[in-house]
């Protein structure tokens, strides 16, 4: 995934990607009960990541001329990933090990493709178009919101 600069805004999002994919690596081979146990953390992280991209990152990109169709496509992919994740959870809850593992593997593939697209186009565009001041603002907004949530849940 290339080299990383810790002060980049996208580093927060890239860490999420790594974390999510690591959990999916496990889910693709785990027993249903373990998948159900993992899901609590995974679903929370996934929703938070998508929410921060949609509510904080994408509006800045749109302001800088990002094509509205690209944004809609990006959000539609988030929904497809969330739906597939619900399927993983349903299979796991029902104790259907093969189906749970297969859908977790499919989910991983979908997420990898989504992340590749972000790394190839969305984040580089943001890097080019969003000013350093705005990047600092994005970072503060994302970090501030997450810190508040973690404090609220005692995490
Ligand atoms: Fe995304
Ligand atoms: Fe992302």
UniProtKB/TrEMBL annotation:
Protein name per UniProt: Hemerythrin-like domain-containing protein
InterPro entries to which the protein is assigned, alphabetical: Hemerythrin-like
Occurrences of domain Hemerythrin-like (ranges): 11-125
Pfam families reported in the protein's UniProt record: Hemerythrin
Superkingdom as given in the UniProt entry: Bacteria
Gene3D superfamilies tied to this protein: nmb1532 protein domain like (1.20.120.520)
UniProt source species: Candidatus Hydrogenisulfobacillus filiaventi
